[in-house]
Amino acid sequence: MNSAFWSEMVTCFNELSEDAQCRVVVVSGAGKLFTAGIDLMDMMNSVLQPEGDDTARISWGIKKKIKKLQETFSVIEKCPKPVVVAIHGACVGAGVDMITACDIRLCTQDAWFQVKEVDIGLAADVGTLQRLPKVIGSQSLVNELALTARKMYADEAKSSGLVSRVFADKEAMMAGALEIAGEIAGRSPVAVQGTKINLIYARNHSVADGLDYIATWNMSMLQTEDLMKSAQAALEKKSPKTMTYSKL
Ligand SMILES: CCC/C=C/C=C/C(=O)SCCNC(=O)CCNC(=O)[C@H](O)C(C)(C)COP(=O)(O)OP(=O)(O)OC[C@H]1O[C@@H](n2cnc3c(N)ncnc32)[C@H](O)[C@@H]1OP(=O)(O)O
């Protein structure tokens, strides 16, 4: 994850968010592993280079840089299109921050995950500590992973709920990821995007607030033609994917 990655991800996801042709996103890694995390040379040469001439100004500048880096993964969560991430080999450091901002996580049998930040002398600051506890439920396991930087392998990632499916190899995983993406893309974008937005809202709020939010959301979204089309398909015992839904 070099400096180009950190800024291009923001441009990319902002464009995907606005692109009505796009209904779902699949993120995967090229090469022998998914990600080695932040480019350590870049980090030392840019993020950590102090700018300013006193503590307050240097600190202010570092905070700005961290907030900017956080946005690289927050854009994934803010994107209304569901994001499926397919992980093979290693997923280290900021890789874990990134995948916890995605909606569906898949991996290969050879995948492993490492909350590596403590090993390089910092508290993870781009999402893992905030999102991982909401993803895997066990605070004790999160604490263990984050405080010891031990590797977690595919089987434990599955049993802990970090990933929902494990595939034999990358080829099988990509086929599986595209199949899931196809299932999502074939359904009403009004229903799909409303579901993602409300799931994230519900995760961050009380049940009562979540129920109120969805009521307000659906007071307009239930007026969509997609509902009639999907209900018609259900009555005819057809998949909702057999209907055509307008772009959103
Ligand atoms: C404050 C900002 C907010 C963001 C914070 C983010 C934090 C993080 O991401 S913490 C994690 C940082 N990453 C690491 O510490 C990974 C270190 N690397 C490894 O553990 C291994 O290299 C890895 C398991 C990824 C791959 O192992 P493998 O045996 O397959 O390859 P290597 O021979 O170790 O590596 C090949 C060359 O790549 C260089 N390299 C690996 N990772 C990084 C990296 N993150 N940044 C820069 N360079 C990296 C490695 O040094 C080798 O280089 P060379 O010796 O020149 O061939």
TrEMBL record:
Any Pfam family: ECH_1
GO CC, any one term: mitochondrion
InterPro entries, per the entry: ClpP/crotonase-like_dom_sf, Ech1-like, Enoyl-CoA_hydra/iso, Enoyl-CoA_hydra_C
The keyword Lipid metabolism belongs to this UniProt entry's keyword annotation: yes
Location relative to the cell: Peroxisome
GO MF term set: delta(3,5)-delta(2,4)-dienoyl-CoA isomerase activity
Keywords: Acetylation, Fatty acid metabolism, Isomerase, Lipid metabolism, Peroxisome
Catalytically driven reaction(s): (3E,5Z,8Z,11Z,14Z)-eicosapentaenoyl-CoA = (2E,4E,8Z,11Z,14Z)-eicosapentaenoyl-CoA; (3E,5Z)-octadienoyl-CoA = (2E,4E)-octadienoyl-CoA
Alphabetical list of CDD domains matching this protein: crotonase-like
Pathway recorded for this protein: Lipid metabolism; fatty acid beta-oxidation
Major site of localization recorded for this protein: other
Gene Ontology biological-process annotations: fatty acid metabolic process
Biological role: Isomerization of 3-trans,5-cis-dienoyl-CoA to 2-trans,4-trans-dienoyl-CoA.
Protein family (similarity comment): Belongs to the enoyl-CoA hydratase/isomerase family.
Protein name (record): Delta(3,5)-Delta(2,4)-dienoyl-CoA isomerase, mitochondrial
Record organism: Oreochromis aureus
